[in-house]
Design brief:
The protein is an alpha+beta fold and 791 residues long. The protein has three domains: 195 residues, no CATH class; 191 residues, no CATH class; 173 residues, no CATH class. The protein is 49% helix and 18% strand. The strands form five sheets. Strands 5, 6, 7, 8, 9, 10, 11 and 12 form an eight-stranded mixed sheet that branches. Strands 19, 20, 21, 22, 23, 24, 25 and 26 form an eight-stranded mixed sheet that branches. Strands 1, 2, 3, 4, 13 and 14 form a six-stranded antiparallel sheet that branches. β24 and β25 form a beta hairpin. The protein is elongated. One of its GO terms (cellular component) is plasma membrane. Pfam families: FtsX, MacB_PCD.
């Protein structure tokens, strides 16, 4: 019987070749899309989950209460780790850390005259006991216990020494004007791709406090550290948060901050806060693509259902004969489900071929290293997708075809039911609803990204290069800037600690006359050199910027409009504030500019003059002389730092990098929307072909009676046009609601225009008409004499 059913399946595939190939292509494309999304989603869900102490590993954040709202962020006082370890019994381990991105690749490591750039950071003694980064050499317990220890990754060890046998060997590290000797105490494997950490070496945190910051800056009002803790197994997180909440306030009574812990591995997917509550993050993209995968697969299954039921009339005699000979409904259902599962298995083979071909490009788009490894999870997922697709695609045709009575079939009295027609039409409408929503979403996301890329941020980021301050440049900053401004093509240059494109250091250590003692305002703070505001094209609202024409600029301060508004100051120029115990005079107010992501409103910011600690130089260069100017700058940089390479960045590129997630989602959505509309059109193509075939004699008679081609096209496409119009009417309000919710995640956003939605509706209708017309025109070209011959 099994052999017989396989033979029947084979014959039916041959008999209905066009339907077979449309279903095969639709299902394989849908399954390939689903497999790619599965690989991506699985990778996203695995980020930071590999640590052995994942269940007990938490990061400390702080709630900042400002103007009745709560802002949550991870920087905390470096003193907090020791206090938590001592005062909270549930905290088994607490580690201070710095963000690798704070220093970027500004670090250099050297052995003699051999020098390389590397990404480094400073971490507490127990860092490698808390995080699971396997050691090739050395061990996690004591690798950072001495101030002069350094732990290297395998790649950086080989790059420096040519081997991993480096324990006990010495090297020199340098960042800005700070440098020191270190002895290699451990070598770890290169960090896995699904780790949010991205360092290449680690130095003890004590070096950061003692040598870079200075012990006097390590106080409760300075949020300079990241802190990670291991909680006791089974610890109640809510109780832990209640215990640590008053720690800072008990030491700084006027503070408005409150620390709390959050699962470390959740920050990648759930890193967004709104008014003190977790409000999602990248998990929204994971959910989005899971929904897309489901709908793309559903569209492919709908094609199978529609084409199978549409072709039912061609197989009714087969069903009638089988039932007459004793076949029961269960056997017929199994036969048709077997047919659909067989087709799905064939589609799976083709889908895997598609995935293998597309995976390199998919990795390039997503910036991942996905691969098809036949592990149990992938095999189970593939089997589940195949079985689900096969049963879903074949369920309706199987139960539909098996319900007919043999007498009605063999007498030819079987009529198409109204329910069958409406079901088929409803499924076509559903396909196009999903396709139209995807098309609208792609367009709105594209326009928002375009808006983000072109928005006037309040400063000039075009043709501004960012140069790291390192080596001799750090010790001779004034001299370097003077010579840099003399380079042909350099319009202006200055230095700062701020990246300008994203939030950095912040402080609550500012007081002023009339300040509410219960209020503790968090200010974004940037150390600035002469001419920074002019170099970046930031507009002054009133007052002046820092200038060499004035003396004692260390005693001066500049705020943005948002800060002055929060402070409640009128006529602020000339007024005095106190910052970290030092009095400073307000000399200027800059107009608000976006120094952070457009997801956030502009917050209070201050600039203070401090040339003793600078991270980056910004230089504005002429567009017409970019290449020549860069060559001159490289030469100048080499004169100051003979053993360094100049790794400059364009400020605009740094700004665009903030929106990589949105850009990738936008690009992937375009591909998936295209796939959805193609699969939908494949089904429409098949149904149009079947309709044209079924009404071929009618077409012949109408042509003989004088009907024109346009009239026949209008007649045969009317039903399909109604279905697409219904889909448009339903899809456009839904897509408006969906995209409005997505845009609410941006503080600065587009207002979707009506023509975004109308345009997509028209495009969907034109695509449908084009698909239908191809088949109808093909039918019109057949000679009526052929179609009207007696059978």
């Amino acid at each position: 019987m099994f052999k017989h059913n396989l033979l029947i399946i084979y014959r039916n595939f041959r008999r209905f070749k066009s339907t077979f190939f449309i279903n095969l292509l639709g299902l394989s494309t849908g399954m390939a899309c689903t497999l790619l999304i599965y690989l991506w989603v699985n990778d996203e869900l695995s980020v930071d989950k590999f640590h052995e102490k994942d269940d007990q590993l938490y990061q400390v954040y702080m709630h900042h209460e400002e103007n009745g709202m709560i802002r949550s962020a991870p920087p905390v006082p470096a003193l907090l780790a020791d206090v938590m370890r001592e005062e909270v019994p549930e905290v088994l381990m607490a580690v201070e850390d710095t963000d690798t991105n704070d220093f970027g690749e500004g670090f250099s490591l050297s052995i003699g005259s051999e020098r390389i750039k590397a990404r480094g950071k400073f971490s507490g003694e127990e860092y490698f006991q808390l995080f699971s980064f396997p050691f090739l050499k050395g061990n996690a317990e004591n690798s950072l216990e001495n101030k002069y220890d350094i732990v290297l990754t395998e790649s950086i060890a080989k790059k420096l020494f040519g081997t991993t046998e480096v324990i006990g060997k010495s090297l020199e590290w340098q960042i800005l004007k700070f440098k020191g000797q270190a002895t290699v105490s451990g070598v770890i494997n290169d960090l896995p791709k699904n780790s949010t950490e991205s360092f290449e070496f680690v130095l003890p945190f004590s070096v950061f406090i003692d040598d870079l910051m200075g012990p006097e800056r390590n106080h409760w009002g300075n949020y300079i550290a990241l802190t990670y803790v291991q909680l006791a197994e089974g610890a109640n997180v809510e109780k832990v948060n209640n215990k640590i909440a008053p720690i800072i306030k008990s030491r700084v009574p006027q503070t408005n901050v409150q620390p709390f812990v959050k699962k470390y591995s959740s920050k990648y997917l759930y890193g967004k806060f709104e008014n003190g509550k977790v409000a999602g993050g990248r998990i929204s993209y994971v959910r989005l693509f899971i929904i897309i995968a489901f709908f793309v697969l559903a569209i492919a299954c709908i094609n199978f259902m529609n084409l199978s039921t549409a072709r039912a009339s061609k197989r009714l005699k087969e069903i009638g004969v089988k039932k007459t000979l004793g076949a029961n409904r269960k056997q017929l259902v199994l036969q048709h489900l077997g047919e659909s599962v067989t087709l799905t298995l064939l589609s799976l083979i083709l889908a895997y071929l598609f995935v293998l071909l597309l995976l390199p490009q998919f990795n390039n788009i997503t910036d991942k290293q996905l691969s098809i490894d036949l592990n149990p999870n992938l095999i189970l997922a593939t089997f589940s997708i195949t079985l689900f697709t096969g049963l879903l695609a074949g369920s309706y045709p199987a139960f539909y075809l098996s319900r007919f009575k043999p007498v009605s079939i063999l007498k030819g009295k079987l009529k198409t039911s109204t329910g069958e027609v409406w079901t088929r039409k409803g499924l076509v409408v559903f396909q196009f609803i999903v396709s139209i929503i995807l098309l609208v979403s792609v367009w709105v996301v594209y326009k928002q990204i375009e808006f983000v890329q072109n928005k006037n941020l309040g400063y000039d980021r075009q043709e501004v290069i960012k140069i790291p301050i390192e080596g001799a440049v750090a010790g001779h900053l004034e001299s370097f800037l003077t010579k840099l401004k003399e380079v042909p093509g350099v319009m202006n240059a200055s230095a700062t600690t701020h990246s300008i494109v994203k939030s950095g250091a912040s402080t609550t250590g500012v007081t002023w006359e009339g300040k509410n003692p219960e209020s503790n305002i968090l200010f974004e703070q940037a150390r600035a050199y002469y001419g920074l505001i002019e170099t970046l094209g930031i507009k002054m609202k009133e007052g002046r910027s820092f200038s060499e024409n004035y003396q004692a600029e260390e005693d001066k301060i500049i705020f943005n409009e948002a800060a002055i508004k929060v402070m409640g100051l009128e006529d602020p120029i000339g007024k005095t504030v106190t910052m970290w115990g030092n009095e400073k005079t307000i000399i200027g107010v800059v107009k608000d500019f976006n120094f952070s992501s457009l997801h956030e409103e502009v917050s209070p910011m201050l600039f203070h003059f401090d040339k003793s600690f600078m991270l980056s130089i910004f230089a504005k260069i002429q567009t017409s002389q970019t290449e020549v100017t860069l060559d001159h700058i490289k030469k100048l940089y080499g004169d100051f730092n003979p053993n360094f390479t100049l790794d400059y960045e364009f400020l605009d590129a740094n700004y665009q990098a903030q929106y990589q997630a949105e850009q990738r989602v936008s690009l992937l959505s375009r591909y998936f929307a295209g796939i959805a509309i193609i699969i939908s059109c494949l089904g429409l193509f098949g149904l149009a072909a079947f309709t044209a075939e079924r009404r071929q004699k009618e077409i012949g008679i109408r042509k003989i009676l004088g009907a024109g081609g346009l009239q026949i096209i209008q007649l045969l496409s009317a039903d399909f046009t109604k279905m697409i119009l219904i889909a448009i009417v339903v899809a456009l309000p839904l897509s408006f609601w969906i995209m409005s919710n997505w845009l609410d995640g941006f503080a600065y956003r587009i207002d979707p225009e009506w023509w975004y939605f109308a345009g997509v509706g028209i495009i969907a209708l034109l695509i449908a008409w084009l698909t239908i017309s191809f088949q109808i025109i093909k039918s019109l070209r057949i000679n009526p004499a052929i179609t009207l011959k007696d059978e």
